[in-house]
Amino acid sequence: MKLLESSIFIDSILKIAHWDKISITTINHSESLIYIPINNVNNNVGLVLIINTIKDEIEEGYLARINFTNKLLNQNSLSASIIDQFYKHKINTFSGNITGFDISNKFLWEMGYKNGDNIYKKKILHANKNQQKLLSNIKSNSTNDNIVKPTSCTAYFLVTYWSDGSIDYVYLGVTCTNTCEQTISINEKQENIIRSKCGGNSGSGNGGTPSMDKISSKLTDDCLKKIVDLILNSSISNSITNVLQNVFSINDKVNITFLQANEVIGNNGYPVPAHTTSDLIYVNGNMNHVVTLNSGMLNGSSQEYKAATIIHEIVHITLTVNAANSASAGIAPPSNYQHYLMLSSYMDEMSQSIKDFFPNLTVEQAKSLSLNGLGSVTTAPEFDGLIARWGFNNIPNDIQHWNYLNQRHEVGQEGYGTLCNNNRGVIGSELN
Q1: Could you give the count of Cα atoms lying within 13 Å of 44 in the half-sphere of its Cβ?
Q2: CA–CA distances in Å: residue 335 to residues 6, 310, 345, 374
Q3: 257 within 8 A of 288, measured Cβ to Cβ
Q4: FRET label pair with 273: which of 46, 124, 134, 191, CA 20 to 30 Å apart?
């Protein structure tokens, strides 16, 4: 039975499973399918178990998320039927996609359909040092079209195989070893520490044991400290936690320090909720990033707004690290360039991650929060396309304006998000 061990995540799944709505069907003479719906916001996720009825054992188990092109009221009941059809290779008139995640909630694959026809399949592949030279010349949808990696590292790509025979490659990131043990702890200075124990050669080619990757939280505001801790230490697995994992899988030393100040000035000369300064290259094997949070500006904001601000800065760091490991290493990006990269590649993931950390948020609020901080990119045609897809507009003072919900979280308006209430209590719930 090839199920990955992740007891915390499995326990949470079992608690929200609809055990009264289990579907059991026969795939063939030796296999049966069990589908257990999971109680989530969109009612489109279920636990799939393939049972060998002869050996009486589980052959396969994973989570399936089914997105219908057109939202239906009875999606949950239809999901079991779609999975059954998937295994019988008869999807009928289904339009949408099916995404598989392992029991540790890591992406496995995605299949896309239109009117019952399979139009694409996505999976993550890695390239060895010889294949990387080939892939670096492929025009992809990634934010880094030409990728030059240390020969001791492995690059990962999201590969889409289209029914017309074409293939798209999207660069995801790089790891220098997959045998690293990482732990999060607190040192004597009450700083959050991520330790990486990796053997073999380092990504810098210097050999020996790689140095410690570290996140330091030197925040004095208790609420900000708890929100940073929520993002860094949560058992939730999503795009943002995976981004952090990818950053710290690089053997060169990557340091992130969280600070706070009563006033923080951005590159535009005006106060901003947060600002990140970063090395553009590795210096003596080190790469330092400092995130300064504007405690004065964030003081009355909701927890959700503060978390969205921190997530925004984490993505900035990720883009800088990616650039340092690419052909553009050491080149300062043009003004707002990283915001364009966020807009083109990260917005869905950022909004979903905010909602993962704060499940009581509406989808619309999470999306509005993720749009904060993009600067002049909000005047770009691509931005108009995104907000239209998300159901927002750009009409000032309209309740459907993309910034309407974000502004209410920013000022801590009653009924929008959760305030810290004197910085006491449990993050993600009403604080006392």
Answers
A1: 17
A2: 42, 20, 18, 11
A3: yes
A4: 191
Predicted pLDDT of residue 192: 39
Give the pLDDT means over successive 10-residue stretches in the chain (432 positions). 44 74 88 84 78 89 84 62 81 85 79 90 69 42 35 66 82 52 38 37 29 66 89 66 57 77 85 88 77 93 96 89 64 73 88 90 96 91 91 93 96 90 42 28
Q: How many Cβ atoms from other residues are within 10 Å of residue 80's Cβ?
A: 23
Phi then psi for 88, rounded to 5 degrees?
-95, 5
pLDDT at 178: 39
Residues 6+ apart with CB under 8 A from 60: 2, 48, 49, 50
Is residue 378 helix, strand or coil? helix
* Buried b or exposed e, range 156-186, using 16+ CB within 10 angstroms: bbbbbeeeeeeebbbbbbbbbbeebeeeeee
**How would DSSP label each residue in 178-218?**
S--EEEEEE-TTS-EEEEEE--S--TTS--SPPPPPEEEE-
Which pTM value belongs to this model?
0.52
Distance between CA 401 and CA 403 in Å, rounded? Answer: 5
Q: How many CA atoms lie within 13 A of 399 on its CB side?
A: 0
Nearest to 17 by CA among 88, 69, 68, 80: 80
Buried b (16+ CB within 10 A) or exposed e, 281-292: ebeeeebebbbb
**At 17, which amino acid appears?**
A
In whole angstroms, what is the distance from residue 226 CA to residue 222 CA?
6
Supply 365's token pair.
């609020």
